[in-house]
Amino acid sequence: MIENPIKRRPTRKIRVGSVYVGGDAPISIQSMTNTETCDVAATVAQIQRCADAGADIMRVSVPSMEAAVAFGEIRKQVNVPLVADIHFDYKIALAVADAGADCLRINPGNIGSEAKIREVVAAARHNDISMRIGVNAGSLEKDIQKKYGEPTGQALLESAMRHIDILDRLDFQEFKISVKASNVFLTMDAYRLLSAQIDNPLHLGVTEAGIYRTGSVKSAIALGGLLMEGIGDTMRISLAAEPEEEVKIGFDILKSLGLRSNGINFIACPSCSRQEFNVIKVMQSLEERLEDIRTPMDVSVIGCKVNGPGEAKEADIGVVGASPRSLVYRNGEKSHLIDTNQLVDEIETMVRQRVLELEKAKSKEIIRTGFSE
Question: Which of 135, 194, 282, 349 has the largest count of CB atoms under 10 Å?
Answer without folding.
Answer: 135
